[in-house]
Amino acid sequence: MYELRGGGAPFKQDSKEPNNTLTDKAGHTVHMLGDTASVWAECHARQQAGELFVGVASRCDDPAWGHECLKKFLVAPGISMMDVVTEARCEIHGGNTQANLRALQQKTGVPPARTCFFDDQSGNVADVAALGVHSFLTPNGVTRAIFERALKAAGPGVSMSTTGPDAAASLSCLDRDTRPRKRLSFGSVQLWHFAVILDDSKLPHDGLSPLGLGELQSADEFMLEEYELARASTRRGVRHVDDFERRGLLVGYLDQIDERALAALEVVEAANRQIRGQNVTTYERVDEEGQEADSTWDLLRRDDKPTAVKPPYTTADEGASRDGVGGGFHERDEDEEVRRKARALADKAATDSRKAERRRCAGCKRYACIC
């Protein structure tokens, strides 16, 4: 519903309008998440009509703060959140959320199959789902879409053995021993889009660069059905490995790949070409029958005429040379020994200098004197 940032009571109402905000003692603004205000207003109207009950089962380190916020958050003109739930159906305590909801169910008499629970913490959702209620994870607060889904899931005529997209979040399913267990599922999907960073300071011999995640570009939230439909509509068969320019991943053996993954591979391919300064594509060499060859080589494609290059460099033999940077083990050991001796001489000179500055006079025992 809302998130407290630790400033504490007293909380000041910033306005008397619905969906208002509060200010805590430290000056932090506290606001309702998602569509909480409008959803609570609808729940209030339905509760007045006898269609449902609204209650609060929450785990809070300071229950008094939670009670005060419920009294000062307005969901309709002159109607606070506490007016909707009343003190009798408000279970805000420390400890376990499951125990709070169990106490609330004993007061209302609503069976688990007709109960919906919303929380932004996955641990609380998992605990409450064990009771057999319809549990929904709402990291951005209760949204209108999730609320409508919850009403449909817990509506009259819905059996707890129902399966499918409209089933409850904690439907029972059968395992190998045909014993009923609880299954937890969620109604929404969040996609996080990051900028791809190519770390060219750690390039292997073939020029491939490790991938890293940069700044967050965007974050989108979709209902599960919408996400699956959109993903299914953008999937297509992969081109044959011979005409697919790939980089370290044999995508030819994948059955399907979506447009987003294909676009990511094309971006990496273009970046690798720019780093190496030439049109180079890595292929897995196959023989004439289409089977994988005994050894794997990197093939440079220039003007569509692949030519074999030298196998990867190895320093297994002492004194082996390397085209580019560095040398064999022997040469590197010699360079390291020279640098080690230079560092030892520099450390000894610095130590002697410090000792000379702190040398005491034999006569007066002072560090500096005019004897």
From TrEMBL:
GO molecular function list: acid phosphatase activity
TM region(s), chain numbering: none
Family annotation (Gene3D superfamilies): HAD superfamily/HAD-like
Biased composition annotated in UniProt, kind: Basic and acidic residues: 344-355
Name of the protein: Uncharacterized protein
Organism field: Haptolina ericina
Alphabetical list of Pfam families matching this protein: Acid_PPase
Region (Disordered): 1-25, 302-357
Top-level taxon: Eukaryota
